[in-house]
Amino acid sequence: MSDYQDALQNPRLSFCDSELMRGAPVTDRLGLPKPVTGGFASVYQVDCTGRKWAVRCFLRYHQDLEQRYASIGKYLQDASLPYTAGFQFLRRGVKVQGQWYPVLKMEWVDGEPLNAYVERNRKDSQAMRRLAEQFARMTKDLRRTGVAHGDLQHGNIMVVGGLLKLVDYDGMFVPPLRGMPSHELGHPNYQHPRRSERDFGPYLDNFSEWVIQLSLLALSVQPGLWEAAGAGDEQLLFSQKDFIDPQSSKVLRALAEVQDETLRQISATFRSVLAYTDISQIPALDGSRMPARVASGSYGSGSYVVVGAKPPEAAKQKGASLPAWVWDHMEAVQVQIGPPFIVERVSVASWVALAVGLARFSRLHYITPAVAAWASVAGLVAAVVALVARYRARAEFVRKSALVLQVRGAKREVRRIEGAMRQIERERGRLVQRGDRTAGGISGKVQDLQGQEKEEYDQVDIWLQRFLAEIAQRREDLNKAEAEELVRAAKSTPVRFLAKRAQAIMRYYRGKRDPLATREERARLEAAKKKDGIRLKYAKKEEPLDKKLRETREGFQKEREFLDERFDQESQKLSLQKWSLDNLAREQNLYARITFVAFVRRILFLKT
């Protein structure tokens, strides 16, 4: 980082970009360029005649960085989202110790970080609600375009004139980058503990959205949570410890005890989000794929809810301050076995009448007790068979059975599609390795040629430096001899002839020096000519290699695009199938009380 600071002190020499060369970096009290340092880059603000730029100097460099930013830039430009800033990747960005390093030139966003804005306005419930609504709208727009920021946290969300802006796109996902790994894992206080570099897709922000939105909603209801949670520079309300050990979380415990029932239910749902082991399955903030279970396993006993039912109007009025999407978390009434039960009750009554009649006949000795008992059992079996037949013929049971079969079929299809996607990923991995080896071999040859070219350049420079050093030495000897002769002339020549004698001496030595300048100029021209010859020679050698490398990359890119297209198709199938499976599972949960025991209890007027 100190090397970057040293380089930025002289923008004219350190930048290649013409606009940045004319700029001036913002400095600290010591007069040094003032950086904002993160885990991936150091950011410097450069003022270019009134227009401000953020110059991101990378602390970690990845070979595909330029490709990623090219894809991100093009996709964001086409998406025209109001939450992003323009940027340009500069391969020759900043010169440090004679070596060029890439930088990202991004529009400087003059705003207030989210945590600072929240801290200043946390006691204004209206402001917190507006912020929560804006955040929900922003995440919905990002999701609609298939974009995931990858590191949603307070430092990367700026509040500009009451509107939200996103900065730092190092970990951003856009659809053209599908299948690539993530180079960063985001701020730990906003990320699921199980996130890894393999997690890189449009679902990447889902967990962070929950953390931020729940924090904003909680503060709009109970501002005192800010002090209780120790929020501030590194978090809003939650920290990584809350995600790893929810049982010991003071914040989650406080949210479980708030008076607002809806907020308690949302926080309970967030506990279930923490239980996910596959973060790609974490539901989106807008409730489009909410978990059916509110709490489970080590996170408490809890109850079960089915998403989609709307609350009564009275409840809406009571909590009208919360965003509309929270009402998708309310509990739905499960399906019950409904009337009529006339035939079933007649069957039961007939069997009871038969059993009573047989018992009376047995006591009157019209039939033996054994016959009465066996006849009663036969009647009971017939009644049970009739009830089972009636139960299996009911629409509720038929639908439940169909749902069971549909869920099994959907699960099998999900496993099949996931297997196909894994196969495509393996093919893509082999393709990338083969492409890297092939391109690496060609690039190695190009680098060897470039090294040879540099060696010949260096030899020409060495020859020129030696020749110029001899010329300089010769010029210095002549200057010294001229000075000595002028001194001798001053001592031995009469005063009236001294000026003429001095002019003659200087003319003589000027005549000696002028050819030296000519020789120096000729040497420089000869060195430039040699370098041009070297450049042309190696350009001819590198041209077929560059063409071959370009064709190789294009060929592998086409194959990769074909695999990506197949992967996208399977991914769309998987999303649709999982969506269908989720809906079937929710509906199946509604039929949990459709059992034969419940059916019999309803016939016998017993509560189920």
Keywords:
six-stranded antiparallel sheet, alpha+beta, 8% strand, Phosphorylase Kinase, domain 1, 9 strands, Transferase(Phosphotransferase), domain 1, 59% helix, 608 residues, 17 helices, 4 domains
Describe this protein's structure.
The protein is an alpha+beta fold. The protein folds into 4 domains: 2-107, Phosphorylase Kinase, domain 1 (2-Layer Sandwich); 112-329, Transferase(Phosphotransferase) domain 1 (Transferase(Phosphotransferase), domain 1, Orthogonal Bundle), CATH 1.10.510.10; 347-390; 399-590, Helix Hairpins (Orthogonal Bundle), CATH 1.10.287. It is 59% helix and 8% strand. It has 17 helices and 9 strands. The chain has helices at 2-8, 11-14, 18-21, 65-79, 114-121, 125-144, 206-221, 225-228, 240-244, 250-256, 261-274, 313-318, 342-363, 369-393, 395-492, 495-590, 596-603, and strands at residues 24-25, 35-37, 41-48, 51-58, 87-96, 99-107, 112-113, 157-160, 163-166. Strands 1, 2, 3, 4, 5 and 6 form a 6-stranded antiparallel beta sheet that branches. A 3-stranded antiparallel beta sheet has the order 7-8-9. The longest helix is centred in the C-terminal third of the chain and has 98 residues, at 395-492. It is elongated and about 175 Å long. The two termini are 70 Å apart. Mean pLDDT is 84; it is low at 287-333.
